[in-house]
Amino acid sequence: MDILKKSFKKSIWIFHLSTAACNGCDIEVLELLTPRYDIERFGIKLVGSPRHADALLVCGAINAHSKPRLLEVYRQVPKPCLVVAFGSCACSSGIFRESYSIVGPLDKVLKEVDPNPNIVYIPGCPPKPEAMIEGIIMGLEAL
Asked: Is 42 helix (H, G, I), strand (E, B) or coil?
């Protein structure tokens, strides 16, 4: 277990998954890569494959169409992993809560495959980049 703690201290690689999002949160994620916020200086890096990721960043409400893809990506991320619910839609389904196609917030959907997922909630529509940096760092401390 000491090896896991040491590996999470240095850097965290994040896979970004957009599930039925309006792209407001996606734009804020891209803002994190700009020189103004430069999340790579904290060791946080976006990766292109969930198999290389330490954390899963989910934006948008989960609908019936995106649910199987979310569950498949979650199964591919090596455990223990951190799941970041980024934005009001991922945290609580937001304004789409009563829609016919919404299957629930992120924690409800992930409990189908994992009874105790490590989820960090970053609410807002869209959340500020500073909130994402703080949320990920707090989530790492919890792991």
From this structure: helix
Please give the residue range of the domain that contains residue 22. Answer: 2-142
The maximal CA–CA distance of the chain, rounded, in angstroms, is 46
**Backbone phi, then psi, for 108, in 5-degree steps?**
-65, -40
Q: Give the CATH number of the domain where residue 123 resides.
A: 3.40.50.12280
Q: What are 51-109's pLDDT values in tens digits?
A: 999 889 999 889 899 999 999 999 999 988 889 998 888 888 877 888 888 888 888 88
Model confidence over 6-17: pLDDT tens digits? 555 667 899 999
Number of domains composing the chain: 1
Question: Cα(70)–Cα(132) distance, rounded to whole angstroms?
Answer: 20
> Would you state the torsion angle of the CA atoms of residues 108, 15, 98, 110, taken in this order, to the nearest 10 degrees?
-10
* Angstrom distances, CA of residue 48 to CA of 13, 14, 35, 62, 142: 10, 9, 20, 21, 25
Q: DSSP assignment of 62-116, as one string?
A: EETTTHHHHHHHHHHSPSS-EEEEESHHHHH-GGGTT-TTEEE-HHHHHTTT-SS
